[in-house]
Automatic annotation (TrEMBL):
Family, per entry: Belongs to the ABC-4 integral membrane protein family.
Pfam family membership, one: FtsX
Keyword NAD among record annotations: no
Entry keywords, A to Z: Cell membrane, Membrane, Transmembrane, Transmembrane helix
Superkingdom of origin organism: Bacteria
Cleavable signal peptide: none
Record domain ABC3 transporter permease C-terminal: where: 59-169, 330-443
Membrane-crossing segments per the record: 52-73, 108-131, 151-172, 199-219, 231-250, 285-303, 323-350, 371-396, 416-437
Official protein name in the record: ABC transporter permease
Entry membrane topology: Multi-pass membrane protein
Predominant localisation class: membrane
Amino acid sequence: MFGLALRSLRMRAGGFAASFLAMFLGAAILMAFASMLDTARAGKATGAARETLVTMAIVVGFWGLLLVILAVTSTLTLSVRQRAEEMALLKSVGATPAQIGRMVVGEAAGLAVAAWALAVLPGFLAGAGLLELLHSTDQVPESVSYAFGPVALAMGLAITLLSAVGAAVVTVRRTVRGRVAESLADAGVGRSRMGKARVAGGIVFLLLGLNLAVVTSTVMRNEGTDAMATAGQADILAALGLALLGPWLIRRTAGALARPLGAFGVAGDLAVSTLRRRTGQMASVVMPIILFTGIAVGTLYLQEIENDAMAAAGLVSTVEQKNIATLNFVVIGMLLFFTALMLVNTLIAATAYRRAEFGQQRLAGATPGQVLGAVTLEGVLLTGIGLACGTFAALFTVLPFGIARADTALPDLEPLTYVAVALIAVVLTMASALGAARRAVRVPAVEAVSI
């Protein structure tokens, strides 16, 4: 089965592109921040400089790790679900679930190793740029030289490989479970029911985020900048929780808006049908929108509240405060870059795969314009869900931190910040979805169905 996995990778390179890109970018980011540990050791950093390097590696690396796992799981799940019919046919000719599982795990492992190997150079360069940033802000002395060694390489390989293999194991178990007839039926429409583990995970993340929000507004009140440690994590945890509950959110929204969308005719009916039948695949799309919005809004407003609090107290920026601000902007820059690429990557992969579905709709009488109209409505709904959930997640940080630092849950914040984040999310979502859909409908309907 491992040999079959390698042949599958060679023959279906395009189908693995989204997963490969997620692993590649994730490995590069993880190695860049892990190299700060190599630098702290080999560069003989001491005192505050060593603490800065270690904090940068651990804090940012931890959240990067969670997002990498989520991105790899999301794209790999999408890829495996797109091959559900193929796997059902393998079962029908005698392949056992264990054999199919080994094939998929082998594909994921081979992909992870290749992605890690190609990410070494970008990870090295990104780590060097990160240290240069710390040098330029006087957080780490120039005498501490850059080192990219065993810690960065080992963490990059181990985390990428474990994420890929773990995602493959979880995904393939759901896909190959059940009888052949049931597997073929599921392959035709996709599963919409969430597993108990996913529901539990979403609830746990939301409760953890709520816990940190309460701690920030009570225990950490009047504790100065220390409150950022708890507040800054609350929105990420809440966004992760809502992202995991994506299928339920999409199904509920589609049901509530079915009648209004019917006013758009065929395009509205197609959009509602897709959202109801393919909630699992649509959840993979809405996940990065939630993460992007929640992390961006929460972290940017967190820093704005802190800056206003410092200015109100008449305090001059200290080295420690500069460190915190730099760390926040590095965190948000890395996380937003990754989630934005994750959003575009997932949308293009999910939409391009629907070429046969679009062909079937056109053969049934829908025009290319109606198909694109349905994709537009889907994109609007998914963007709306993502923005609403991301905004709600950001409140887990903004409201309690406002109480802790400004003595009000509704501090005076710059609205253009939110508008900018929302516009970026809308542009990325709609441009990616419509661009991929336009390319898909250019293929003749008969040819698209036969692919």
